[in-house]
Specification:
The chain is α+β, with helices and mostly antiparallel strands. The chain contains three helices and two strands; from the N terminus they run αβαβα. It is about 40% helix and about 15% strand. It has a two-stranded parallel sheet with strand order 1-2. The protein is globular and about 30 Å long.
Length: about 70
Amino acid sequence: DVPVLIRSIKAFDNIADVSEIIVVTNKDNINETQNFINNYFFAKKIIITEGGNTRQASVFNGFKFVSKDCY
């Protein structure tokens, strides 16, 4: 069984128009998430960042890490 997070990252990793993948998680899980993701190979750059107190704040935090050449 492949974990949902890994299946999701793989889906974006296989899209040619996607150049980077941003994962937003609870601040207490950042290191654990990074270590977990490091057990798999992905072709694209993966950025892990801290979420916020609400879904809207988490999405906003993720958008802050989108590279300027992506928009």
